[in-house]
Amino acid sequence: MANSAPPPPAAPSPASKLVRIIVVVILALIVLLGLAVLITWLIIKPKQLVYRIDSASVHNFNLKNNHLNATFDLLIKAHNPNSRISVYYDPIEVSVAYDGQTIAFNTLEPFHQPRRNVTRLDATLVARDAALSGALSSDLRVQKKSGNIGLDVRIKARIRFKVGIFKLKHHTLRISCSPVKVQMSSLKNFETASCDLDW
Protein backbone atom coordinates (compact mmCIF):
# COMPACT_ATOMS: atom_id res chain seq x y z
CA MET A 1 0.00 0.00 0.00
CA ALA A 2 1.61 3.28 -1.11
CA ASN A 3 2.01 6.07 1.40
CA SER A 4 0.17 9.24 0.46
CA ALA A 5 2.36 12.37 0.24
CA PRO A 6 1.88 14.92 3.07
CA PRO A 7 -0.14 17.93 2.06
CA PRO A 8 1.98 20.95 1.06
CA PRO A 9 2.29 23.66 3.76
CA ALA A 10 -0.21 26.40 3.44
CA ALA A 11 1.20 29.49 1.80
CA PRO A 12 1.29 32.51 4.18
CA SER A 13 -1.51 34.89 3.55
CA PRO A 14 -0.75 38.33 2.11
CA ALA A 15 -1.95 39.88 5.38
CA SER A 16 0.61 37.99 7.52
CA LYS A 17 3.39 38.92 5.05
CA LEU A 18 2.42 42.57 5.41
CA VAL A 19 2.46 42.33 9.22
CA ARG A 20 5.96 40.80 9.17
CA ILE A 21 7.25 43.54 6.86
CA ILE A 22 5.77 46.25 9.10
CA VAL A 23 7.34 44.68 12.23
CA VAL A 24 10.76 44.43 10.53
CA VAL A 25 10.56 48.06 9.34
CA ILE A 26 9.57 49.29 12.83
CA LEU A 27 12.42 47.35 14.48
CA ALA A 28 14.89 48.71 11.92
CA LEU A 29 13.70 52.28 12.58
CA ILE A 30 14.06 51.79 16.34
CA VAL A 31 17.61 50.47 15.92
CA LEU A 32 18.55 53.33 13.58
CA LEU A 33 17.06 55.91 15.94
CA GLY A 34 18.92 54.40 18.88
CA LEU A 35 22.19 54.48 16.93
CA ALA A 36 21.57 58.12 15.94
CA VAL A 37 20.94 59.10 19.57
CA LEU A 38 24.05 57.20 20.74
CA ILE A 39 26.28 58.74 18.06
CA THR A 40 24.92 62.24 18.81
CA TRP A 41 25.52 61.75 22.53
CA LEU A 42 29.09 60.52 21.91
CA ILE A 43 29.81 63.55 19.70
CA ILE A 44 28.25 66.14 22.03
CA LYS A 45 29.29 64.49 25.33
CA PRO A 46 26.87 66.55 27.45
CA LYS A 47 28.07 67.57 30.91
CA GLN A 48 26.07 68.68 33.92
CA LEU A 49 25.66 72.41 34.49
CA VAL A 50 27.26 73.55 37.75
CA TYR A 51 26.05 76.24 40.14
CA ARG A 52 27.27 77.61 43.45
CA ILE A 53 26.91 80.65 45.69
CA ASP A 54 30.23 82.53 45.78
CA SER A 55 29.17 85.19 48.29
CA ALA A 56 26.12 86.13 50.34
CA SER A 57 25.59 89.03 52.72
CA VAL A 58 22.71 90.84 54.39
CA HIS A 59 22.25 94.58 54.99
CA ASN A 60 19.67 96.76 56.73
CA PHE A 61 18.59 93.80 58.83
CA ASN A 62 15.67 94.77 61.06
CA LEU A 63 13.53 92.23 62.89
CA LYS A 64 10.75 93.81 64.89
CA ASN A 65 7.42 92.45 66.11
CA ASN A 66 8.03 89.23 64.14
CA HIS A 67 8.35 91.16 60.86
CA LEU A 68 11.61 91.17 58.90
CA ASN A 69 13.10 93.86 56.70
CA ALA A 70 16.45 93.09 55.11
CA THR A 71 18.43 93.19 51.87
CA PHE A 72 20.24 90.04 50.76
CA ASP A 73 23.06 90.28 48.21
CA LEU A 74 24.05 87.08 46.44
CA LEU A 75 26.71 86.26 43.89
CA ILE A 76 25.66 83.17 41.94
CA LYS A 77 28.18 81.35 39.75
CA ALA A 78 26.75 79.46 36.74
CA HIS A 79 29.22 77.21 34.92
CA ASN A 80 28.52 75.66 31.51
CA PRO A 81 31.38 73.15 30.96
CA ASN A 82 30.04 71.90 27.61
CA SER A 83 32.12 72.43 24.47
CA ARG A 84 29.20 72.01 22.02
CA ILE A 85 26.16 73.19 24.01
CA SER A 86 25.14 76.75 24.89
CA VAL A 87 22.23 77.65 27.17
CA TYR A 88 19.44 80.21 26.85
CA TYR A 89 17.91 81.29 30.16
CA ASP A 90 14.45 82.80 30.43
CA PRO A 91 13.87 85.16 33.42
CA ILE A 92 15.36 83.54 36.52
CA GLU A 93 13.45 83.42 39.81
CA VAL A 94 15.64 83.59 42.91
CA SER A 95 14.30 83.26 46.44
CA VAL A 96 15.73 83.11 49.94
CA ALA A 97 14.04 80.90 52.52
CA TYR A 98 14.56 80.36 56.22
CA ASP A 99 13.38 77.08 57.73
CA GLY A 100 11.13 76.46 54.73
CA GLN A 101 9.55 79.93 54.66
CA THR A 102 10.33 82.26 51.74
CA ILE A 103 11.39 85.65 53.07
CA ALA A 104 12.74 87.41 49.95
CA PHE A 105 12.33 87.05 46.18
CA ASN A 106 13.57 88.62 42.96
CA THR A 107 13.66 87.95 39.21
CA LEU A 108 16.86 88.21 37.15
CA GLU A 109 17.04 89.15 33.47
CA PRO A 110 17.25 86.41 30.82
CA PHE A 111 20.63 85.77 29.22
CA HIS A 112 22.50 83.48 26.84
CA GLN A 113 25.42 81.48 28.21
CA PRO A 114 28.01 80.45 25.60
CA ARG A 115 29.89 77.17 25.55
CA ARG A 116 32.60 76.63 28.17
CA ASN A 117 31.55 79.74 30.03
CA VAL A 118 31.31 80.91 33.62
CA THR A 119 28.68 83.59 34.26
CA ARG A 120 28.35 85.39 37.58
CA LEU A 121 24.92 86.69 38.49
CA ASP A 122 24.42 89.45 41.05
CA ALA A 123 21.10 89.06 42.82
CA THR A 124 19.64 91.52 45.32
CA LEU A 125 16.62 90.23 47.22
CA VAL A 126 14.66 92.49 49.55
CA ALA A 127 12.51 91.29 52.43
CA ARG A 128 9.83 93.90 53.06
CA ASP A 129 7.86 93.45 56.25
CA ALA A 130 7.99 89.64 55.90
CA ALA A 131 5.80 88.11 58.61
CA LEU A 132 7.44 85.35 60.65
CA SER A 133 6.23 83.07 63.40
CA GLY A 134 7.48 83.71 66.91
CA ALA A 135 9.72 80.63 66.77
CA LEU A 136 11.34 81.70 63.47
CA SER A 137 11.89 85.22 64.80
CA SER A 138 13.62 83.85 67.90
CA ASP A 139 15.85 81.57 65.80
CA LEU A 140 16.80 84.44 63.49
CA ARG A 141 17.75 86.66 66.41
CA VAL A 142 20.00 83.93 67.80
CA GLN A 143 21.66 83.38 64.41
CA LYS A 144 22.13 87.12 63.91
CA LYS A 145 24.12 87.30 67.15
CA SER A 146 26.37 84.48 65.87
CA GLY A 147 27.35 86.63 62.85
CA ASN A 148 25.73 84.65 60.07
CA ILE A 149 22.35 83.22 59.13
CA GLY A 150 21.86 79.81 57.53
CA LEU A 151 19.46 80.22 54.62
CA ASP A 152 18.27 78.23 51.61
CA VAL A 153 18.66 79.80 48.18
CA ARG A 154 16.32 78.50 45.50
CA ILE A 155 16.65 79.25 41.80
CA LYS A 156 14.12 78.41 39.10
CA ALA A 157 14.42 79.07 35.37
CA ARG A 158 13.17 77.81 32.04
CA ILE A 159 16.14 77.05 29.82
CA ARG A 160 16.82 75.87 26.28
CA PHE A 161 19.93 74.13 25.05
CA LYS A 162 21.42 75.06 21.69
CA VAL A 163 23.46 72.45 19.82
CA GLY A 164 24.91 73.77 16.58
CA ILE A 165 22.04 75.53 14.83
CA PHE A 166 19.37 73.59 16.72
CA LYS A 167 17.54 74.87 19.79
CA LEU A 168 16.03 72.09 21.86
CA LYS A 169 12.74 72.28 23.77
CA HIS A 170 12.39 74.17 27.05
CA HIS A 171 13.30 72.54 30.34
CA THR A 172 12.46 73.79 33.82
CA LEU A 173 15.62 74.01 35.88
CA ARG A 174 15.35 74.00 39.68
CA ILE A 175 18.43 74.67 41.78
CA SER A 176 18.69 74.36 45.55
CA CYS A 177 21.63 75.76 47.52
CA SER A 178 21.68 74.89 51.20
CA PRO A 179 22.87 75.85 53.68
CA VAL A 180 24.08 79.28 52.60
CA LYS A 181 25.74 81.08 55.51
CA VAL A 182 24.74 84.69 54.87
CA GLN A 183 27.24 87.05 56.49
CA MET A 184 26.14 89.80 58.85
CA SER A 185 29.59 91.37 58.57
CA SER A 186 31.79 91.86 55.50
CA LEU A 187 34.84 91.16 57.69
CA LYS A 188 34.05 87.46 57.84
CA ASN A 189 35.22 85.05 55.14
CA PHE A 190 32.36 83.52 53.18
CA GLU A 191 32.25 79.77 52.64
CA THR A 192 31.07 79.01 49.10
CA ALA A 193 27.90 76.94 48.97
CA SER A 194 27.36 74.22 46.36
CA CYS A 195 23.98 73.71 44.71
CA ASP A 196 21.93 70.69 43.67
CA LEU A 197 20.02 70.48 40.38
CA ASP A 198 16.54 69.08 39.92
CA TRP A 199 15.21 68.78 36.34
From TrEMBL:
The keyword Cell membrane does not apply. Pfam families: LEA_2. InterPro entries: LEA_2, NDR1-like. The chain crosses the membrane at residues 20-44. It is a single-pass membrane protein. One of its GO terms (cellular component) is plasma membrane. Residues 77-177 form the Late embryogenesis abundant protein LEA-2 subgroup domain. Keywords: Membrane, Transmembrane, Transmembrane helix. It is found in: Membrane. One of its GO terms (biological process) is defense response to other organism. Its main location: membrane. PANTHER family: HARPIN-INDUCED PROTEIN 1 CONTAINING PROTEIN, EXPRESSED, LATE EMBRYOGENESIS ABUNDANT (LEA) HYDROXYPROLINE-RICH GLYCOPROTEIN FAMILY. This is Late embryogenesis abundant protein LEA-2 subgroup domain-containing protein. It comes from Populus deltoides.
